[in-house]
């Protein structure tokens, strides 16, 4: 249908146009807080030291320039991908982040998988057995999961499954005896398969399981509530009753009509889900020594590595915006009504 | 030949505030090729009765009595048997076409799903051939098969609903306020369409409406429902000429009289089904109420040929 | 006559909300709300009366180090020989203070801005919505990290950070509520009577909007506590010597093999408190959102 495709294209363009101001607002906020806020960020970060080191850092960061010069310079650097050098590692922040991004992607994708699976299960059980014991239990489980501090949950998972049962290692992405597979995607699970190192693959998966469960199950609590609320509405929808009246089998009515329609608002809320996921990833990576961007942020905080923190935050923000645009476009593709 | 025979049908809903009796010992018959108009105010249980025939009431509903159709008693029939009947032998069309089609499904998929549900082995070409035939019958251009429901107007969606109802040439069509949410011109088109289809396909139709005008025009038999009870039944012509039940009289009077330009209405409100009045539920609003009316519900009598009424004014 | 009708409509709306809420006390939603409130009040009680409730001085060495839970030390002792139960009781003060303070700040900023933005509309409204939505869509913890890294540790500073993260939530809900209430009949009626804008806003819109404040609070309070705990865990929230649940978890995370109780109990307290807050919001949502109520007859 050319008409449908054209409307989808128009929607994508419109959505991208809206993204511009949003990115600018976020970048301005980060700039404001990390550079222009009253007080002296370098002093705050280096503590009481204000000797030649602080002075040279200020000069290196251009903090003696007028604010608008700093702002324009800041934006220019972001769009050319230059985020300065980490004070601690002296590497380019952009390179540091590029190196760590695949780890974060691997973790978040795996967690999302866990979250969708467990969340849908809980939510569907709840909605189809409304107000019965199964519903009450599922809702309770979902509420507790979503309200569990991720870092605590991760530590307890380590205690139970790594320390007590010794099923998994308690941190890192790969055991020391395995060589890191040649980089193709940077995702160890995929790279090891590409390289044909099957035992490395098993080891990478084993390392991924605990952090992905930690982050995924917490997010599943959020998902479950969303799925339940929307299922309750779609199960009562007129088209569901109409489908029943046409003799469609209950399972087909459930999956093809009720569940599918309930997924529309759920996937619309994906942007919010990703925000929670990205917040959780910072804590999960910190607990499991998972060398991704979240752990990079954690290390930057502990080391008071200011350019690294700023760079990581900016990249994180850009990834978020990029994902939310992708999600919206995906939704427009699923739900024909959005495009109009 | 009697197509549908309902006897002593009761439907009640469980609610937190207690049971709600929506249909109370209702008797109805529909002959093949005949339209029965079921009329009543909103909330009188007429929609529940329509849905009870196809047994698509929510889990909170309890159904007793008998509904004989297609050689089965639909009250006691098992779910798989009921499913074979729904959409194949008996179809239902609803009041609000805007929300009755799945917004995420193209028209093509609605038909394909329906045909596959009843004939799992049907191949797509054959299914589409039948779809085009019924779409043409309801005057929807078949080239719009791949569009989504939101791309159609309300009247067109109702035609699509009707086309879906006709795919398997059902012997019974339950039309629950099929035109209430449509404008007057579209209403006439849809009802004429239904009428011509009824004759062409030899269907029995249960036309549920609050609009006496539609009954006068399109139905042969009629039944008047009040607070879950069938108050009066008979041929449309006779009932309009000589309404027996005071409620029927009130309903007919509340249509504007063009000669005197007067509009009468029935005083009072329809009763709360949770706490209906004792005896005949109409007695608080009835101009001819007698002491006996507050006691028990009046027995159904047959004061004229082909007519039944439940009122103490007509003792057996 | 018209004024009477308008006043009646307004009163009956508030009255209905209260009646519905009381009437639900036996339903699941009612149990959730009342149970959640009871748990939160319990934590408020032990926090306020910590000096009397806690069996030991939280900062004193009262035992040999790292004892497992026992009848004298229900939650065990830590490496410094401090009683963990007492530290957990004192630790309730931080999250509760932060939540109360941050909610007050977020409300003080988000609500009036949302009220005016929704009421007057226009270009400023669209701009504010864009800014607030951008902040809202951003991962809350990351935002908190950025702000906290700059303004430094401390209870008041953390409250400011959390308020900054949740002000957009107050803004959004209140702005959208005002925008929808504005379209409703009784406001139109009031405007038709040529009442001044201030009167319409304060007499007719504010009371209706005020209903949504407890809902926003209960929804964002649990998240606020988790964010505060997360900041503490990352070492951005508080000076190190204050007893705080998140900080305790972070401090003994490395010693989990030797003394699980040092991590387990403070974290458990966070879960109980946040889940109780979530129950309140879930219950309120069930009661106040008629869309989700069961249709009993059709």
Structure description:
The complex is a heterotrimer of chains A (340), B (316) and C (298). Helices cover 76% and strands 0% of the residues of chain A. Chain A is an all-alpha fold. Chain A has one domain (2-37, 81-339): MetI-like fold, CATH 1.10.3720.10. Chain A is globular and about 80 Å long. The mean pLDDT of chain A is 82. With 316 residues, chain B is an alpha/beta fold. Chain B folds into two domains: 2-88 and 200-278, P-loop containing nucleotide triphosphate hydrolases (Rossmann fold), CATH 3.40.50; 90-167, no CATH class. Chain B has nine helices and twelve strands. Chain B has helices at 46-54, 79-85, 107-118, 124-137, 154-166, 184-201, 212-218, 236-241, 246-253; strands spanning 2-13, 20-31, 35-39, 61-69, 72-73, 90-93, 172-176, 204-209, 221-226, 229-235, 300-304, 307-310. In chain B, β1 and β2 (20-31) form a beta hairpin. Chain B is globular. Chain C is mainly α and 298 residues long. Chain C has a domain at 92-281: MetI-like fold. Helix content of chain C is 73%, strand content 0%. In chain C, α4 (84-91) packs parallel to α13, α9 packs antiparallel against α10 and α11 (212-233) runs antiparallel to α13. The two termini of chain C are 37 Å apart. Chains in contact: A-B, A-C, B-C. Chains A and C meet through α1, α2, α6, α7 and α9 of A and α6, α7, α11, α12 and α13 of C. Chain B: One of its GO terms (molecular function) is ATP binding. Chain B: Pfam families: ABC_tran, oligo_HPY.
Brief descriptors of the model:
heterotrimer, A: 340 residues, mainly alpha, MetI-like fold, 14 helices, 0% strand, B: 316 residues, alpha/beta, Rossmann fold, eight-stranded mixed beta sheet, four-stranded antiparallel beta sheet, 12 strands, AAA+_ATPase (chain B), EC 7.2.2.11 (chain B), transport (chain B)
């Amino acid at each position: 249908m050319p008409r449908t495709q054209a409307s989808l294209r128009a929607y994508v363009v419109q959505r991208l146009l809206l993204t511009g101001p949003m990115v600018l607002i976020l970048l301005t906020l980060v700039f404001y807080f990390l550079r222009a806020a009253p007080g002296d960020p370098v002093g705050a970060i280096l503590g009481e030291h204000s000797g030649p080191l602080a002075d040279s850092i200020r000069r290196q960061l251009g903090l003696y320039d007028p604010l608008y010069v700093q702002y324009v310079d800041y934006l220019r650097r972001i769009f050319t991908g230059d985020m300065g050098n980490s004070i601690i590692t002296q590497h380019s922040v952009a390179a540091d982040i590029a190196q760590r991004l695949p780890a974060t992607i691997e973790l978040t994708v795996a967690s999302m998988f866990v979250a969708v699976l467990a969340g849908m299960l809980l939510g569907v059980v709840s909605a189809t057995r409304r107000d019965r014991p199964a519903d009450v239990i599922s809702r309770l489980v979902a509420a507790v999961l979503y309200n569990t501090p991720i870092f605590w949950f991760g530590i307890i998972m380590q205690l139970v499954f790594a320390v007590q049962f010794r099923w998994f290692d308690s941190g890192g992405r790969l055991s020391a005896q395995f060589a890191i597979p040649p980089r193709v995607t940077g995702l160890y699970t995929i790279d090891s398969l590409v390289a044909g190192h099957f035992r490395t693959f098993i080891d990478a998966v084993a390392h991924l399981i605990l952090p992905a469960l930690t982050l995924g199950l917490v997010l599943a609590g959020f998902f479950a509530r969303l799925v339940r609320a929307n299922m309750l509405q779609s199960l009562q929808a007129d088209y569901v009753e109409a489908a029943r009246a046409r003799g469609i089998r209950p399972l087909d009515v459930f999956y093809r009509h009720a569940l599918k329609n309930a997924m529309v608002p759920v996937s619309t809320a994906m942007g919010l889900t990703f925000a929670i996921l990205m917040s959780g990833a910072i804590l999960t990576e910190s607990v499991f020594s998972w060398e991704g961007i979240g752990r990079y942020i954690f290390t930057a905080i502990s080391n008071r590595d200011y350019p690294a923190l700023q760079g990581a935050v900016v990249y994180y923000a850009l990834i978020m915006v990029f994902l939310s645009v992708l999600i919206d476009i995906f939704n427009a593709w699923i739900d024909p009504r959005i495009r109009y | 030949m009697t197509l549908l025979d309902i006897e002593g049908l009761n439907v009640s809903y469980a609610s937190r505030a207690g049971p709600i009796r929506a249909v109370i010992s209702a008797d109805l018959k529909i002959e093949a090729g005949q339209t029965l108009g079921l009329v009543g105010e909103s909330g009188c249980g007429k929609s529940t009765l329509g849905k009870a025939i196809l047994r698509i009431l929510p889990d909170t509903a309890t159904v007793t009595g008998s509904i004989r159709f297609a050689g089965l008693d639909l009250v006691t029939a098992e779910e798989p048997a009921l499913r074979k009947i729904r959409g194949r032998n008996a179809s239902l069309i609803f009041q609000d076409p805007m929300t009755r089609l799945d917004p995420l499904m193209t028209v093509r998929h609605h038909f394909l799903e329906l045909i596959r549900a009843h004939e799992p082995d049907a191949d797509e070409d054959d299914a589409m051939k039948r779809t085009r035939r019924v779409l043409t019958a309801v005057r929807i251009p078949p080239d719009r098969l791949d569009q989504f429901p939101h791309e159609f107007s309300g009247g067109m969606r109702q035609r699509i609903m009707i086309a879906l109802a006709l795919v398997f040439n059902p012997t019974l069509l339950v039309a629950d306020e099929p035109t209430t949410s449509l404008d007057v011109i579209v209403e006439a088109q849809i009802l004429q369409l239904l009428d011509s289809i009824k004759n062409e396909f030899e269907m029995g139709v249960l036309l549920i409406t609050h609009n006496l005008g539609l009954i006068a025009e399109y139905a042969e038999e009629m039944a008047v429902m009040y607070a879950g009870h069938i108050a009066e039944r008979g041929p449309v012509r006779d009932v309009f000429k000589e309404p027996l039940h005071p409620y029927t009289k009130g309903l007919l009077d509340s249509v504007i009289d063009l000669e005197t330009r007067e509009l009468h209405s029935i005083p009072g409100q329809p009763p709360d089904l949770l706490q209906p009045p004792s005896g005949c539920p109409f007695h608080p609003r009835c101009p001819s109420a007698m002491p006996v009316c507050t006691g028990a519900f009046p027995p159904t009598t047959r004061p004229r040929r082909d007519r039944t009424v439940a009122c103490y004014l007509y003792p057996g | 006559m018209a004024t009477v009708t308008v006043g009646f409509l307004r009163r009956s709306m508030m009255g209905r909300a209260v009646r519905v809420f009381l009437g639900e006390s036996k339903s699941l939603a009612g149990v959730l709300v009342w149970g959640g409130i009871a748990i939160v009040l319990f934590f408020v009680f032990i926090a306020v009366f910590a000096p009397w409730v806690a069996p030991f001085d939280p900062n004193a060495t009262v035992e040999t180090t790292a004892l497992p839970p026992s009848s004298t030390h229900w939650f065990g002792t830590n490496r410094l020989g401090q009683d963990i139960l007492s530290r957990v009781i004192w630790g309730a003060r931080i999250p509760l203070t932060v939540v109360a303070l941050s909610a007050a700040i977020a409300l003080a900023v988000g609500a009036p801005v949302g009220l005016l933005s929704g009421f007057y509309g226009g270009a400023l409204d669209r701009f504010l919505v864009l800014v607030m939505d951008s902040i809202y869509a951003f991962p809350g913890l990351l935002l908190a990290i950025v702000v906290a890294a700059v303004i430094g540790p401390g209870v008041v500073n953390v409250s400011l950070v959390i308020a900054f993260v949740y002000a957009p939530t107050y803004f959004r809900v209140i702005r959208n509520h005002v925008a929808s209430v504005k379209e409703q009949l009784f406001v139109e009626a009031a405007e038709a009577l040529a009442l001044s804008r201030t009167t319409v806003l304060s007499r007719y819109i504010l009371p209706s909007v005020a209903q949504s404040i407890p809902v926003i609070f209960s929804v964002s309070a649990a998240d606020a506590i988790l964010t505060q705990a997360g900041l503490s865990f990352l070492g951005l929230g508080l000076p190190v010597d204050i007893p705080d649940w998140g900080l305790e978890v972070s401090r003994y995370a490395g010693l989990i093999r030797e003394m699980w109780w040092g991590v387990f109990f403070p974290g458990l307290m966070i879960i109980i408190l946040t889940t109780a807050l979530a129950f309140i919001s879930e219950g309120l949502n069930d009661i106040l959102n008629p869309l989700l109520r069961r249709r009993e007859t059709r």
